[in-house]
Amino acid sequence: MLITYLGHASFLIETGKHRLVFDPFIRGNELTKGKVDFDALKPDFILVSHGHEDHTADLVDLANASGAQVIGSWEMQNWLHQQGIKNTHAMNFGGSWNFPFGRVKFFQAMHTSSFADNSYAGAAGGFIVETEEHCFYYSGDTGLFQDMKLIPMFHDVSFSFFPIGDNFTMDAEQAAMAAEFVNCDKVIAMHFDTFGFIEVDHAAARKSFDQLGKELIIPEIGKSFEL
Ligand code: NI
Ligand code: MN
Question: Which domains are delineated in the chain?
C-alpha cells in the first residue's frame, strides 16, 4: 500500500487497484504549494471525515475533475448533491459497506462539523478501512475518546492516522494513548504544523510514542512511503 502525504490531514492511498484520497485540502495549504500535483491525484474514491474547510476545500473540484465516488455522512451527501456532485455514498456511525477497494466502517469522532458556508455537515467521523493488504484507521479530527477501545474488538488495525496538532484535536501524548486504545503500534501523524495553533515539536511528539513503545511516522508533504 503506497501512502502519499498531501499535507494537513490529506492523504493519497494507492491500494494497487484503487486510488483513495482522504480529506482533500491541498491547494489552499501554504505548506503544500509546489509539492503536490493536484491534477495528477485522480482518485477513484474520496473519503471525507467532516465538513470543516481544512478537510473539504478541494472536495467539489476534485470530485468533479475525477468523477470519484465520495464517501461520508448522510448530511455530507446532501450538501454534495446541492453542489452538483451525484456520485456519493452516505454512511452513518457503526455502519460498514463493501467497496471495490475494501470494507469501510464509518466510526464516530469527537469533534464538530460544519461547512465553510455554515451549512450542517452531520457529525464528524473517521474510517476503519479493511483492504486485502491492511486494516487501517483514519480517525479524522478528534479528541481522545473511550469508544476507540471498541475498535480492536472487531478489527485488527495495523496502523492509524491520528491528529497530533493539539488545540483543535488530540496532541501527540493523547494520540499515543489512542494507539494503545486501538491496539496498533504504528501511527501516521496528521493535522500538525499547517497553521499557528497546531505547530508541533517533532522530537517531543516522537518521545510520547517512544514512552508507550509505539512508532510515530511524521510524514513529509509530497513524499510517498510503503506500508
Ligand atoms: Ni475539523
Ligand atoms: Mn481540521
Answer: 2-226 (3.60.15.10)
